[in-house]
Design goal:
184 residues; alpha+beta; Arc Repressor Mutant, subunit A; 2 domains; six-stranded mixed beta sheet; 8 helices; 43% helix; elongated
Length: 184
């Protein structure tokens, strides 16, 4: 609807129009051109849900990090997949590790290796990976992130090991609105 409104404004700019009405219309939708509209579609994912936000809020919230909060950032301009905890420095991750961490943070319940395999690799990344390979992926992630024990919890479900976000831990994932995650 906003795109159509912007197109209508552009057409009005090329013809005779009520200048005061057009100025008011531009101010109400806060975006002056369709190109800016496409750039403004950012998203912040939290345990409360997925919020579509404007560019200003997107970048402002990246500067705010709670002491027990994990932030994940998809930097599309530089192809960076970054993580930080409690406001510390950003740490770069590879594609599979980034989405594995995002899945573990997102899950409200412990996930077994098989569940991670089905959700992340089978349906999302569409790669052939064994459950043992997922366990092997967690070890380097644990070694790379000095805060791993503060953000993840390991438990047993019967005779299987399961992992999830630490109780009381928070997260925010900063991305474009068009980015897709394994749980979607």
């Amino acid at each position: 609807m906003a795109s159509q409104s912007l197109q209508a404004i552009k057409e009005l700019e090329d013809s005779l129009y009520d200048e005061e009405l057009v100025e008011r219309y531009c101010g109400e939708i806060l975006l002056q051109r369709a190109e800016e509209f496409a750039r403004a579609l950012y998203c912040i994912v939290t345990p409360a849900g997925r919020d579509i936000v404007a560019e200003e809020r997107y970048f402002a919230e990246q500067g705010e990090c709670l002491p027990n909060e994990v932030q994940l950032l998809i930097e599309n301009d530089r192809n960076g997949l970054l993580v930080r905890y409690g406001g510390d420095e950003w740490i770069g991750l590879d594609y599979a590790s980034f989405y594995l961490l995002a899945l573990l943070l997102y899950s409200e319940r412990p996930l077994t290796g098989d569940e991670m395999h089905q959700t992340l690799f089978f349906s999302f990344l569409e790669r052939e990976v064994t459950e043992a390979a997922i366990r092997k992926m967690i070890e380097p992630l644990r070694n790379r992130l000095p805060f791993w024990e503060s953000i993840s919890e390991t438990t047993r479900l019967g005779n299987r090991v399961a992992r999830r976000r630490q109780r009381g831990g928070a997260y925010r994932i900063f991305c474009r609105a068009s980015d897709v995650f394994p749980w979607e």
